Amino acid sequence: MNFNENDLLKAKEAGIISCENYDNLIQYLKSDNQNEELTKTEKSRPKITMESFLYYLGAVIIIMTMVYYLRDISEKYGNNLLCLLSFVYFCIFTFIGNCFWKKNKKTPAGLLYVCAASITPVFVRAFEGIIGLSNMRVYDFR
Which of 10, 47, 124, 128 could be cross-linked to 134 through a Cys-Cys bond (beta carbons 3.0 to 4.6 Å apart)? Predict the structure, then answer.
């Protein structure tokens, strides 16, 4: 059951509760509502935990290794395989991200979407190389 201030006022006027009890009850309920609002705002703040740190670290490692290995694939096997692999990786990251999103695990899902988006420029460059728009080589970071 929900009560509001008007219900308590009617009870006070009917003599069911005293004026002192009415005032004390209203003060208590107002302070309790303020405490609930404070706890809601504290809970809504994102907290950095070891779990979220490891998620972010894993995403960085995935992106860095993808850059390194896809560059080697481009040099050894050409743009056709690079285009195919980048498309497959994009689909895998998106699919697994969707699975996490449906399980309400927003952080790993979002990071997998970031990994999928980081593969997109590789796919575009490889596709441009296939159709002859780009003769660029991948930069050598060694």
Answer: 128
Distance between CA atoms of residues 114 and 69, nearest Å? 18
One-letter amino acid for residue 114 of the chain = V
Rounded CA separation 74/112 (Å):
23
pLDDT tens track for 9-28? 888 888 888 888 888 888 88
Spatial separation of the C-alpha atoms in residues 37 and 20, rounded to whole Å: 26
Closest CA to 134 of 67, 82, 72, 91: 82
In terms of Cα–Cα distance, which of 110, 120, 95 is closest to 56? 110
What's the whole-model pTM score?
0.61
Reading the block at residue 7, the tokens are: 């219900």
